[in-house]
Amino acid sequence: MVSCALQHGIPEHFCRRDTFFTAKGIVTYVEIEQNVFLPNNYRIMEPTFPFPKLDFVSKPSCAEIFEDWLNITKRPIPAKPPKEVKESDKDAFLLNGYSFLYEYKYSNEKAARAQVVWNEIAKMMWKPRKYVGGYGNEGLAVYYAMRDYRLENMTGFVIGSREPWIEVLALRSGASKVYTVEYRATRVLGTDRIEYMHPIDFAEKWKENVEKFDFAITFSSIEHSGLGRYGDSIDPIGDIREVQKVMCLLKKGGFFFVGLPRGADAIKYNLHRIYGRMRLSMIMAGYKWVAMYRGDSPYPQCPRREDYEVVHKLQHEIHVLRKL
Hints:
Blueprint: H1 4-8, H2 12-17, E1 19-22, E2 25-28, H3 29-37, E3 42-46, E4 53-56, H4 62-73, H5 90-93, E5 100-102, E6 116-118, H6 121-124, H7 140-148, E7 155-159, H8 165-172, E8 177-181, E9 186-188, E10 194-197, H9 199-204, H10 206-209, E11 213-219, H11 238-249, E12 250-262, E13 266-268, E14 272-274, H12 277-283, E15 287-294, E16 315-323
Parallel strand pairs: 5-13, 6-9, 7-8, 7-11, 8-10, 11-12
Antiparallel strand pairs: 1-2, 3-4, 12-16, 13-14, 15-16
Helix pairs in contact: 4-11
């Protein structure tokens, strides 16, 4: 495989200049490209900082993306999710050892079977913003992101939603229609601008929805994908698959608001992943990074290296991306 330096026609020291903080110590872009990105079908297109711009080595088709995802959902699911990462799966889950593993807390929270009813959406539309969002001050970042990048007359979907706070904020940002893609059966009352879809039904209808949507939003959801916490199939790249599905369904230039816990790249098994510069770079492949919001600050924030080198702590932030 052609090295980062040769590929871009620049001195080798340029690609070695920027480094990643990892479970194996501080390492170069060259090392991460060879041992993390390439094995996951990505390559560095531009060695930018703090997130190198990646592209696919071989871009999967939407048919492949959805077929693979649907096949994984058909795998047998154990009565209880595994309490630790299998030895045979560690390289895939931990980015060949460059991601930290925290054996933090075990959780078994299969999606509730009882239907939930959303019947206070009209009231939520008029609440002060700090009382609408979930996750305390961290949830306010979603409001500020959609205040600056409005969804006027747009149609989109939300991935994972226990309460309709993101849907309400999207409507308040001008969205005309929002689909909630959630495993728990949800009945929506009082509005026809929010509609529920089960994730498997949504995926099976992908051909009808290719490049149909103007925006997609996820906040504190896809970091759980593939860890088994909610009774889902074990999949080391469950979060990456979700992002790739979104890419197929967004129009060119469509917005993707991605809210994730940030810190040094890690997994708190089996609760969630933490996103550092390595995994975030893969999440952003195929998208243009536009802005990032964090906490209750009304202004976009600049990603700093030290933010992604924090160990054992996390803070949610939301990145605004646009499909290339």
